Amino acid sequence: MPATRMYFPDGGRAAERTRRRQAALGMVLLVAVVAVDMAYDKDVTISAAVTVVPGLVAVNGRARSVVGAGVLAFAVVLLLSWWDGDSADHLFSHVVAVVGATVVGLIVQRHRVRRERELADVRLVADATQRALLRPLPVCAGPVEIAARYVSAAEEALIGGDLYDVLATPWGVRAVIGDVRGKGLPAVRATATALGIFREAAHDEPRLCRIAERIDRALQREGGSEDFVTVLLVGVAADGRCELLSYGHPAPLLRTADGDVCEVPVEHEPPLGLGLVDTAGAGRPGCAELASGEELLLVTDGILEARDAAGQFFPLAERYARLPVGRSPGQVLADLWQQVVQYAGGPPGDDSALVILRRRGPEVPVDS
Question: How many angstroms separate the CA atoms of 130 and 9, rounded?
Answer without folding.
Answer: 21
